[in-house]
């Protein structure tokens, strides 16, 4: 039988029907990829304690009572991130049920976990969001199997249509991505905004695509927080990248956009509505599918920026070079 | 009878002994001030669902099942933040028990809440952390009264000593704060790092003291996340401000410091150990008291920076000036 999110959660439920906590933990982009799963549980569950934690914070300051009633979901793209491997081991030692998401089936993190879901990455733009999609999928299974999720079928419809939509939309945005790259290629700072389930994708874009991979300073700003401080930096030509959700928090994003426009800032918007998210996702579930679509499309923007700046996305000063830190 | 965190939670428990969820919600610095309370519940509670949410995200994308079994804690310094007032009303309409923290007893948010705790601010450095301290105090009462907290007495000892310690330490740091101000006054970007219960204080310092009040670009970086991307920007003289906890996540902060030193970055450290946090807080509770001590001391650094830059902390482009946004 193929192992799926569904079969894994069924198996855990057979062993322990009293699961009452879900912790999502990882490092960097892999932690950010868990955010939509966390956001789903935090919004839809009526009985699960939930948290998303940096893996080393989980290791050094583990919440009390993590144990047999806890599901811990860890992730590492290459499967070799030491803190995430340690978190996987630590969670198992505490008796938790540990599922890991990795691109490499023979990696150390996969060996340490009780359950593994191996995902794609290189194949196409949709696969750039495979880890994120699996994290959400696990979250939906957890809530549905342990307490029931009214919109489970609608969520499955959205999952079924997601990858084709991402690839279709990513292939449409080349001109917009080139325009973005040309406009932002000399910027030393880009502010990245998002809200709702997409807050993790904003963090990931700022911290990893921009800071790690392009060496551009990039604060992440929650769209709702913009008005409570960071908007003081909005001037003519201040460079912003704004993710706009189709779903309940759309107002927060749109309000930030209006303010930026009012002061003639330099603005690029990636809007899930422009990319037809509603064609696959009903109103009841659309919220949670924004980050995958936006991340898939954003990848094209990042590639074009990298080309315009002649700075490969794979270029590092320290990662893969230094051995001890 | 004086209303205290303790009496409020006792009253809620009398009305409903089945509380199973705590949500902390606010905007900007007031949301960040709730973080230590959230962090406490997330780490110490075995049965409470907990979350910290931007107030407008709470308003537009409210978690399912918020109601009579939920305590919602809101905060607004001046008590007039529209989204936080709306969150307070919204939570009450859903039947939740709502406690608000404000500096102004006659403010709109205070009128909307069922329970109010009015706190100081101007008096001294300790009072700059009064809201944060009350949020933690409420969190300790919630966990202790609903499920028991083994180290309750040790936490009370720390609360009792906290304000004197903050004022004592804040009054000692003038020379260090002046040195910081002189060194950083021309920087356009400062990266702010912290971990554990102090992650909210790092966010607050970066987003509000620096971005809002000094118009300096300031990404917040979790000390554990530093190594998974943002450290690629660490070069000679890159400006960092690092909060170092005395407690379980100290290793994360110290590891970031070592890396910055290795590449000769420009580093300022505010270390709770230098400021004698262990003199009031036992190992079992010390974690949660770092953000108050560090925030109190940091205020002196911010004031000195403001003076060196001749940019008052009260100067705004938009807040208090624009009426519609």
Automatic annotation (TrEMBL), chains A, B:
In its UniProt record, a GO molecular function of this protein is:
isomerase activity
- Top-level EC class as recorded in UniProt: hydrolase
Recorded source organism is Bombilactobacillus bombi
E.C. no: 3.5.-.-
Q: What is this protein called?
A: Fructosamine deglycase
Role this protein plays: Catalyzes the conversion of a range of fructosamine 6-phosphates to glucose 6-phosphate and a free amino acid.
Gene Ontology biological process terms from the UniProt entry: fructose 6-phosphate metabolic process; protein N-linked glycosylation; UDP-N-acetylglucosamine metabolic process
Q: Taking every annotated instance into account, which residue ranges of this chain make up the domain SIS?
A: 8-149
InterPro entries of this UniProt entry? FrlB_SIS, Fructosamine_deglycase_FrlB, GlmS/FrlB_SIS, SIS_dom, SIS_dom_sf
**Key word Transferase present:** no
Going by the UniProt record, its keywords in alphabetical order are: Carbohydrate metabolism, Hydrolase, Isomerase
Q: Pfam families, per this entry?
A: SIS (PF01380)
Determine if Nucleus is one of this entry's keywords. no
Q: How does it assemble?
A: Homooctamer.
Superkingdom of the source species: Bacteria
